[in-house]
């Protein structure tokens, strides 16, 4: 699945433009702070913030083999981003499924959330958990031996 760099590029270009304007107005410190803020936004919204997504069927297959949770997510979801950031490096050990790129995944999420595409929905051992606490997800990873 192709991952997009469009929004991070917009943040980088916009940040560079605003920082340049601040620098030319005689505020070099403000320019640096602005540029750092936009760089942070670009990093958070980049494909680097989330591990590569796989399809729902592949995620279920991998989870059955290694016992690791499956996380259904979508771009722009602040709760998904919160989960990802709180898990830090452990997030790469989960199986991430982007529901906007996989209709089967979106249907699976709707099926367990009263018709709503509420994410993150984390599936552990075949049981879905909607918007679980990051600490709970870390414990599930530990239990899976990851």
TrEMBL record:
Domain Glutaredoxin: from-to ranges: 70-127
MF GO annotations: electron transfer activity
PROSITE patterns documented for this protein: GLUTAREDOXIN_2
GO biological process, one term: cell redox homeostasis
Pfam family, one: Glutaredoxin
Transmembrane segments: none
Entries under InterPro entries matching the protein: Glutaredoxin, Grx-like_ET, Thioredoxin-like_sf
PANTHER family: GLUTAREDOXIN (PTHR34386), GLUTAREDOXIN-LIKE PROTEIN NRDH (PTHR34386:SF1)
Record protein name field: Glutaredoxin
Highest classification ranks of the organism: Bacteria, Bacillati, Actinomycetota, Actinomycetes, Kitasatosporales
